[in-house]
Design a protein that fits this description.
By secondary structure, the chain is mainly beta. It has one domain: monomeric porin ompg (Porin), CATH 2.40.160.40. It is built from two helices and 13 strands, in the order ααβββββββββββββ. Strands 1-2-3-4-6-7-8-9-10-11-12-13 form a twelve-stranded antiparallel barrel. The longest helix is centred in the N-terminal third of the chain and has 14 residues. The relative contact order is 0.13.
Amino acid sequence: MFTILALLLFAPAQAQDPLPVDERLAAPERWEFSGSLFYSDPPGSEDRLTPIVYADRGAVHLEARYNYEDLETLSVFGGWTFAFEGELEASFTPMLGVVTGETEGLAPALEFDLGWRRFAWYAESEYLFDDEDDDDDFFYSWSTLTYGLTDWLSAGLVAERSKLEDTDWSLQRGLALELQHERLGFALYTYNIGSDDSYTAIALELAP
């Protein structure tokens, strides 16, 4: 009788297919951290450092920004990345952010990255809903379109629409130069070339 009961109890477990070895031994996904630091001194405004810290685990994406939406303002975002691979590589990250400091509010945002051969198009945008005054709501966007001249050097165009720049241009436009060596990156972005409102932003990047 004991033998029959044991067979009945353990038979379902034995009938199940075991997990593949690679799945049983696979380590859980780890957090990957990266960051950027921008310096700019646009006309009609104070110069500023804008640090941005990124954290990714699988499709989960988190980031924190300072002096981004406004001076002395911190924003924290969370989102989910959708990635597509092929001849055309693409990733889209819709996010929602909380903004606090000199400006306070909520900011739905989107980041996307498209790559085809040596061309790369990156853009980030958000719409900030100001908690204190609806008239202070604003849309922000920043994008680059570059071509890889070598494996470590890219050049192209940059465009930005920002609350922080006080110029005669509603959209700041210019040239981009980006260098990448292993995990370190360096970039120059020069806006409104040939005008009285021209200025340059410098960026440092630490990739995962």
